[in-house]
Amino acid sequence: MADTPAHDPALERRNLTLLVATQSLGGASPPIIISLGGLVGQMLSSTPTASTLPVSLYQLGLALSTLPAAWLMHRIGRRSAYVLGALMGVLSGLVAAWGISRSDFVLFCLGTTLAGFYGACVQSYRFAATDAVGDPTRHASAISRVMVGGLIAAIIGPQVVIWTRDALPATPFAGSFYSQAALALLALPLILALRLPPPPPKAHAQGARPLGEIARTPQFVVAALAGVVSYGLMAFLMTAAPMAMVGHGHGVGEAALGIQWHVLAMFAPSFFTGSLIARFGKRSVTALGLVLIAASGALALTGMGLIPFWGALILLGVGWNFGFIGATALLTECYRPSERAKVQALNDFLVFGTVAVASFGSGQLLHTIGWRGINAGMLPLVALVLSLLAWGALRQRRLAADR
């Protein structure tokens, strides 16, 4: 099942279309887990502070899977690794649903943890898009196009929750996780149809720089930190939001709709994010994303009604889109073709490792300092990354002036 090169425009378009479709199906799983993970945790766990553990374990599984998934992609090709990821997605949904049916919190947590490997594969679809087009000047556009698939996922995932959460009256929410398994199964034939470029040959890879040397460059530090903060804050707040909404008198359906609007806002801008990057630059768009994330925190501080909750989630989603796509585009400047697998893996390990650590603390922080405290506390982190982006832009100008 070896990947094949994609040199002609028709094959590039075909691969990108398939990646959009697989992103649409694979990207529907996290909204299901995030929307219901904390609520199922509250139902099955005897400890209130452990309610977000299933979501945190999903994030941990994703973080721990980034390095082995990247190794597999390098050894056997992206397509074969993606097939394995989709099969793991099927298994994870079945195990989680089984855990609900048995009222077994540990088994449910195992299911969400296993979903992390599929999540790691889905997250790398954006890098597969850059491999498919080849031309570095089109990387941002390709990333943005594949992320449009998340817009469809934003409709599929939350609607699956609304339609199937009570499909099995004896076991609430189990139907949604059976549906999660079905979505991963539907992705398999699309993945098998991919024809992506193979990994660089060993002779080419021997000229690659050590990973530690790359990780110490200012370009990598700024790109990785922007990705970590953009994704970490988004996931942290999105994990806590459904429980905060239910805790302040809003219904499960209203919480699910809030997540749906949030995920729509995450991916809808992808239609034009690539064009914005081409016009205004990667750093400017990344900075705009971080400013919008800060604005979402400010709006969340204004009240506990539906409008502040939903408005904050929408701003958070748009901010994530600009911040994360911008950071991903910045990352592609940091490595040579022979270095891409290890640099991409390190970046995603840092991003999703941070997300996992943050999500482990979201339930405890929500319980202790509340929704307002969480939103106020994230503002200094945004200010730090904005400062580094400004420093990087100034440093780049000085280097250009010295030439």
UniProtKB/TrEMBL annotation:
Membrane-traversing stretches: 55-73, 80-99, 105-125, 146-165, 177-196, 217-239, 259-278, 285-303, 309-331, 343-362, 374-394
InterPro entries listed in its UniProt record: MFS, MFS_dom, MFS_trans_sf
Keywords (A to Z) from UniProt: Membrane, Transmembrane, Transmembrane helix
Pfam families: MFS_1
Superkingdom: Bacteria
Domain Major facilitator superfamily (MFS) profile span(s) in chain numbering: 219-403
GO MF: transmembrane transporter activity
Protein name: MFS transporter
Organism (species): Melaminivora suipulveris
Lineage: Bacteria, Pseudomonadati, Pseudomonadota, Betaproteobacteria, Burkholderiales
